[in-house]
Design a protein that fits this description.
two-stranded antiparallel sheet, 33% strand, single chain, alpha/beta
Length: 200
């Protein structure tokens, strides 16, 4: 059913299969990413309190996809919201917790789109990190995040522009070059799923 995934990523196959049975079969991708200095500090070391992240593409009532930006970015960089999965926390529980914190929206989970099994190469070491990508439908247009210290703003884009957002992330320069490439991967998945008829 699933391609072989790395043991180091601590991907729970039973949990993935249970989610797939409810929300559709995800695509599974594995990436080897050579880190730069910024990514060595950002994702180059294992975090014992985190077992991965959720990525959520929320279609608004307008039909557009919600993006956000953060205060710590040097300039506005809009991307899909993401959030950590705590050690011992179930993926679906983390997804709804993070959506509540970052958007405050009530949503319906439509599709489990992908598992991104990333391996960050840091000189002679490799740090695995996994992203679980989901597609959801918002039940209202209201945005009331509780995590206002981190989130600086929102915008929405038509579904057909998700590929453009991915390319903008890949085009970031300076210390965000590697980070931008990594962040673009989930946007490519969403673009493929929503614009190629996999998820409606």
């Amino acid at each position: 059913m699933f391609p072989e995934l790395s043991v180091e990523s601590r991907i729970d196959q039973l949990e993935i299969e249970a989610l797939a049975a409810r929300y559709g079969q995800p695509r599974c991708h594995r990436y080897r990413i050579e880190t730069d200095n910024y990514m060595r500090a950002y994702r180059g070391q294992a975090n014992p309190d985190r077992r991965g992240e959720v990525v959520f593409a929320i279609r608004q009532l307008s039909g557009e996809i919600l993006l956000h930006t953060k205060h710590r970015y040097e300039k506005p960089i809009y991307r899909l919201p993401t959030g950590r999965i705590e050690r011992g926390e179930e993926i679906e529980a983390a997804l709804f917790r993070e959506i509540a914190e970052e958007t405050g929206q009530t949503v319906q989970l439509c599709r489990f789109l992908a598992v991104l099994d990333c391996h960050f190469v840091n000189e002679n070491s490799v740090n695995p990190f996994v992203s679980y990508v989901f597609y959801l439908q918002s039940m209202s247009d209201k945005l009331c995040p509780t995590d206002t210290e981190e989130i600086a703003g929102f915008r929405t884009v038509p579904v057909k522009e998700m590929g453009t957002i991915a390319q903008e992330l890949r085009s970031l320069d300076s210390h965000r070059r590697c980070w931008g490439y990594w962040r673009s991967l989930a946007h490519d998945v969403v673009n493929s799923a929503l614009n190629c008829g996999q998820s409606t």
